[in-house]
């Protein structure tokens, strides 16, 4: 504040500059939130969070009782989810402009199906704020562990379920496929509870066209609370029409065939490696 001896505030300390750190709380917050995420939540002036269960909310509030604020009220029933995402970004940017060290905490991995996290970082950097994202444990990470899947063996393709159908996504059936957000297929609006999913037949048709009606696949819902077990149900595509689906479900589709070897590429690789060894440059 300027005073009579310094009417223009030339000797005032510089205004505090906000910065942003976005963290993930994991799927099961107790045990999956990283020590790095915990440290930033504790340190922040303001913690804006969006989590899926009361235990996770309690954990965040216990780490920063004064600065923790939920973003859940940005969702409005039957309104497009993108409206809520825009509201989240606006709140994050408001804290930065106020000079706060701001931590935004999202359940799972903050960069996986969390568009407001990416948009907040983009806008923060565009306005000259320091902003970064720290990794967290996603539902896919939990799926790999619970189903015993190694994506390095056959490869793994990952699609949002509605996008998979509407944008004619092609599939390599020698590789696994993970379809996200099965439980809200065909919807862009927010709703409390489960969705009716009247368009699910479109997804079933595409899966049966690619894999046939008898190919085994797995519905998966990672355990959120300590002491609970993850849900793993083997189904075929048609079962998606009758299975009760929570909004958290992911669909894992194993490969249906062996990959086609490229013998020309293999032989060339062998020859190149042999020539390098003979050159004595190792």
Molecular structure report:
This protein is of the alpha/beta class. It has 2 domains: 19-137, Tetrapyrrole methylase, N-terminal domain (Cobalt-precorrin-4 Transmethylase, domain 1, 3-Layer(aba) Sandwich); 140-253, 2-Layer Sandwich (Methyltransferase, Cobalt-precorrin-4 Transmethylase, Domain 2). Helix content is 35%, strand content 17%. The chain has 10 helices and 10 strands. It has helices at 29-32, 35-43, 54-63, 81-97, 115-126, 139-147, 151-154, 161-166, 200-211, 263-278; strands at 19-24, 46-50, 68-70, 101-106, 130-133, 156-160, 176-180, 217-221, 231-235, 250-253. A 5-stranded parallel beta sheet has the order 3-2-4-1-5, with helices on both faces. α4 runs parallel beside α5 (115-126). The chain is globular and about 60 Å long. Residues 1-10 have low confidence and may be disordered.
**Which class of secondary structure composition applies to the elements?**
alpha/beta
**Radius of gyration from CA coordinates:** 24 Å
Number of DSSP strands? 10
User: How would you sum up the global shape?
Assistant: globular
Query: In sequence order, what are the helices and strands, one letter per element?
Result: EHHEHEHEHEHHEHEHEEEH
Order of strands across the main sheet: 3-2-4-1-5
């Amino acid at each position: 504040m300027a005073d009579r001896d310094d009417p223009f505030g030339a000797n005032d300390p510089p205004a505090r500059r906000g910065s942003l750190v976005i963290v993930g709380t994991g799927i099961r917050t107790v045990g999956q939130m990283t020590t790095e995420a915990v440290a930033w939540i504790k340190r922040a002036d303001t913690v804006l969070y969006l989590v899926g269960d009361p235990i996770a909310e309690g954990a965040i509030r216990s780490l920063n009782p004064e600065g923790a604020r939920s973003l859940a009220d940005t969702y409005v029933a039957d309104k497009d989810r993108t409206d809520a995402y825009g509201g989240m970004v606006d709140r994050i940017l408001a804290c930065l402009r106020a000079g706060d060290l701001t931590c935004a905490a999202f359940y799972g991995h903050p960069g996986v199906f969390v568009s407001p996290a990416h948009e907040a970082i983009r806008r923060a950097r565009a306005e000259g704020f320091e902003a970064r994202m720290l990794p967290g444990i996603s539902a896919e990470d939990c799926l790999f562990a619970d189903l015993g899947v190694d994506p390095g063996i056959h490869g793994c393709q990952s699609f949002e379920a509605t996008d998979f159908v509407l944008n004619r996504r092609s599939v390599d059936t020698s590789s696994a496929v993970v379809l996200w957000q099965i439980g809200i297929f065909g919807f862009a609006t927010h709703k409390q509870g489960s969705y009716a999913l009247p368009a699910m037949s479109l997804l079933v048709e595409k899966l049966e066209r690619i894999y046939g009606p008898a190919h085994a696949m797995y519905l998966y819902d990672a355990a959120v609370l300590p002491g609970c077990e993850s849900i793993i149900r083997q189904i075929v595509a048609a079962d998606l029409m009758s299975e009760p689906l929570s909004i958290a479900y992911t669909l894992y589709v194993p490969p249906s065939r062996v990959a086609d070897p490229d013998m020309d590429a293999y032989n060339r690789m062998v020859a190149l490696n042999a020539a390098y060894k003979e050159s004595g440059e190792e």
